[in-house]
Amino acid sequence: MAERKKPSPPMTEEQLRRTVVGELKPHDAQITLVEYDPAWPKNFAREAKRIKAALGERLIMVEHVGSTSVPGLVAKPIIDILLVVANSADEPSYVTELEAAGYVLRIREPDWHQHRLFKGPDTNINLHVFTQGSEEILRTLMLRDWLRTSEADRELYARSKRNLASKKWKYVQNYADAKSEVIEEILERAKISSK
User: Fold this and answer.
1) For position 193, what pLDDT does the model report?
2) What sections of the chain are H helices per DSSP?
3) pLDDT for residue 1
């Protein structure tokens, strides 16, 4: 059996301050999870159309990811979108166009797959931008696809999320980091299954 990847340690407040664009706002509350909403894929489709219109040929891939992309899974009511561009570190090649379409750059993580995150103009979304070929793209899609087909892991993930969401979190990122262990466990089974 392959050695399981060790989850990254949670981000410190100092790390968060270095990555957040604009004000770092504490959450200081539990996380709100809601039952799956069949409107989420429609919301994604509308955003994908807007992103494609803004970027044109520079858009390599746009996918609905995260818990809102998995029918039957509880989720924070925020649509996660994966956007792949040629080079996410080359902000001038896409940021201006996304901002003109109403998206707001909120996170810049050059040390983690050159990840960028935008919030949406009128829908609560997290638009995650990665460079073509990043291993994080494959991991994100593998997790989504596996959770769509594995009822046992979908239920495990839902239980883990509910347990973690019931705690008070200073920052939402702390909750996201706390899910790393169960995500790595689920990804390991997905990798074994795909062999």
Assistant:
1) 87
2) 13-19, 40-55, 95-100, 135-149, 151-165, 172-178, 180-194
3) 30
Q: What integer pLDDT is reported at residue 16 of this predicted model?
A: 85
From CA 143, how far away is CA 158, in angstroms rounded?
13
- Alpha carbon distances (Å) from 193 to 126, 145, 156: 29, 12, 17
* Six-digit token string for 46: 């509308």
How many CB atoms are closer than 10 A to CB 157? Answer: 23
Separation between Cα atoms, residue 148 and residue 144, nearest integer Å: 6
80 contacts 137 by C-beta, under 8 angstroms: no
For the record, the structure tokens of 88 come out as: 């996410």
**Would you say 84 and 57 are in contact if contact means Cβ atoms under 8 Å apart?**
no
User: Which residues does the chain have with pLDDT short of 70?
Assistant: 1-8
Architecture of domain 13-194: 2-Layer Sandwich (3.30)
Domain ranges of the chain: 13-194
SS3 state at 109: strand
Q: How far apart are CA 128 and CA 63, in angstroms?
A: 10
